[in-house]
C-alpha cells in the first residue's frame, strides 16, 4: 500500500521521519510493506507553491491508501488571510476534501507516565478512554463571515441528521467492541444542533440494547474528565466540543505528546499526533515523536488491519518508557533523556 | 436595598435560605440592611404559573437592586419544548432581559480544600484566578432552528463589536486591579467571530500598556488549566467557551460546590452558584450551600460596595473549613460532616 507522508511545519518535519522509521522496522520481513511518498502541506506548502493544500497534495492524498501527517502552522503565516493559513487552508481543507468525519483520539495512561500527570496517581492510573470527535461539520465548516451596521462576525454551527448519524453509529460500534459504555456529549439545554444530536443518538440506541448510553452536557463533561475520568470509556461529540475535550483528555494520559489520532471516513485514514507544530522547539531535535509513532500504530490497525504489528509498536513505546527513556517534555530528574531521533531509534 | 431571591428548583430551594441567613447575619447592626423579596423562576414557576420566567418575576428583578438565584432545571421539565424549559425559558431569559453580559467566576483554592482536588496539591495550592465569561451573546442567543431536505439543525454564533468590546474592557480593568495578567481565550485559527474578538482585544490592549495580554486557543486553554493553572490570573472569553472553562476551572478550587458567580451589567447584579440544581440530592439537607453563600459575598462587593462585609463572609467560610467542617460532597474520612442548614449556621 501507498502512504502519503505530509510532514507540514515546525516539529512536523522531525517527528514524521521517526514514525516512518518505526513503521518500516515493524513491517520488515512481513507480508505487507508500505511505500512512502512525500507531499507538502501547511506553511511549507505556502512557502514552496503558494497554497496550504496544493492540488498535487490533494491528488496524492486521494490516490494514497493512508496519510501520515505531522502538524501545520506557525507565526510566519499568521498574518495571512484566515482562509489561506496552514490551519484553515491546509489541515481543515484536507480533512473536508477527504470527508474524514471520524476523528479517534485514544487516551490510555501508561503506568510509566502516571507521575507525569498533574492529576493524582489514583485518579488517572487506570484511564483508558477514546474520544470520537466529528471532524467535518459544525462551527468549523459552517458559513462564516462579517456584517456591518453594527460590525459583527458570525460562524454557523450546523449539522445534518446524516452527519450526526454516521459518527454516533461509529460511537456505538466502538462501545460494543470496548466495555459497552458510550457517553454522548452535547449542550442540548441550549443548542438546537445538540437537541437534534440527542434525538438521533436516542434513536440509534435502540439498535444497541447492550450499550450503556449516557448523555452529558459539555461543561459537565469537562469537569467530570478531571473529577472521575474512569467513568468514561467511549465519548462521542461534535467537532468543537471534541477539539476542546481531546486536548483536555490528553492530560489524563500524562501528556499530549503521547496522544495519537486517526481521522477516518470508512475507507481512508489520515493519521496525525493530537498536538501541534510547536514552532518554539522546532529544529532542535527535542520534540517528542511518540504521538506520531503511535499514530503509525493506528494506521496499521485501522487502514491495514495489522493488529499484531500495531500492538508491537504500542508495546515498544511502553517498553522504552519502562526503561526510563524520556524526551525532554516528559523528563523528571533521574530519567534518561533522549532527542527526537534517538527516541525513534529506541522504539525501532 | 431590595434583593430579589429566586430559589428556583432542586437544591436551589435549600441553598438560597442559607445565603440569606448569612447576609442578614453579616449586616446586623451595620449601616446597610437588605430587604429580601421572593419570586418564582424555572420549573417552580412553570408548575405554579405556567412560565419559566413569569412577568411578575421579571418586573421584580427589574425593580430590585440585586438578585440572588439558586438554580433551575430538572428531569420533570425536560420533555417540554426547549424554549419553555427552565434553562432557556428561565435562566437564559432573565440574563438576557437584564443584559447581564459579564459573568465573573472566581476560583481560589482554599488551603483547606487542597486535598479535595483530584489534581496534585503542588499544582493547585496557589490557584487564584477569575474567569470572565460573556453571558448574553454567542451561540446561546444567536438564531437557532431546524431545516429540512436534508434534516438539519443550526445555531448561530454571532458577536457584535460592541458586545466584545464591553466584556474585554472589563477583563482589562480586572487585570489591572489584580496581578496585571489577562488571557483572552478564542479559536481564532478557525472561527471568524474569534478573529473579530482578537482584533478588538488587540486594539483595546493599546489603552492598557501595563497589562500583560496573552491569547490562547480554547483547546489549549482547557489543557493549560490542568497542566499549569498558576499561569492564569484573569481569563476573558465568549459565552460557550466560558461555560466549559468555568466548570473545568472549578476543579482547581477543589470543588464546584465552592464557586460563586456574579452576572453584571454595570448597574445591576445577579448572583448564583456556578453549579446546577442537582435534583438527585434535592430535599435531603445534604447540598453544599457555600457557593451560594459566597455568591452573597460577591453581591455585597459588586452591588453594594461592602468590601469589608464581603470579606467577612469569605473569611467565615475559610474558618469553618479550617475547623474541619464539610458538607458531604467535600467530606473525607475524619471530617465533621454538616447538613445544608447546619453549614449555613456554622458560617453565621
Ligand atoms: C489546528 C486546529 C485547526 C486543529 C483543530 O482545531 O481541529 C487542532 O486543534 C486539532 O485538534 O487537530
Ligand atoms: C444551565 C445552563 C443553561 C447554564 C449555562 O450553560 O450557562 C449553566 O451551565 C451555567 O454555566 O450557568
From TrEMBL, chains A, B:
Binding residues for NAD(+) = 74-87, 276-288
Which GO molecular function, any one, fits this protein according to its record?
A: magnesium ion binding
Q: Could you say which cofactors this protein requires?
A: Mg(2+); Mn(2+)
Q: Name one Pfam family in it.
A: Iso_dh
User: Where does this protein reside within or beyond the cell?
Assistant: Cytoplasm
Q: Which residues bind Mg(2+)?
A: 219, 243, 247
What does the note accompanying the cofactor annotation read? Binds 1 Mg(2+) or Mn(2+) ion per subunit.
| Entry EC no(s) | 1.1.1.85
A single Gene Ontology CC term: cytosol
The catalysed reaction is: (2R,3S)-3-isopropylmalate + NAD(+) = 4-methyl-2-oxopentanoate + CO2 + NADH
**Record site feature (Important for catalysis), residues:** 140, 187
What are the alphabetically sorted keywords of the record?
Amino-acid biosynthesis, Branched-chain amino acid biosynthesis, Cytoplasm, Leucine biosynthesis, Magnesium, Manganese, Metal-binding, NAD, Oxidoreductase
Where does the Isopropylmalate dehydrogenase-like domain start and stop, copy by copy? 2-347
Identify the pathway: Amino-acid biosynthesis; L-leucine biosynthesis; L-leucine from 3-methyl-2-oxobutanoate: step 3/4
InterPro entries assigned: IsoCit/isopropylmalate_DH_CS, IsoPropMal-DH-like_dom, Isopropylmalate_DH
Q: Which GO terms describe its biological process?
A: L-leucine biosynthetic process
Residues binding substrate are 95, 105, 133, 219
Role played: Catalyzes the oxidation of 3-carboxy-2-hydroxy-4-methylpentanoate (3-isopropylmalate) to 3-carboxy-4-methyl-2-oxopentanoate. The product decarboxylates to 4-methyl-2 oxopentanoate.
Fetch the NCBIfam families from UniProt.
leuB
Family, similarity comment: Belongs to the isocitrate and isopropylmalate dehydrogenases family. LeuB type 1 subfamily.
Subunit relationships: Homodimer.
Protein name, UniProt field: 3-isopropylmalate dehydrogenase
Q: Which organism is it from?
A: Desulfosporosinus fructosivorans
State the taxonomy lineage. Bacteria, Bacillati, Bacillota, Clostridia, Eubacteriales
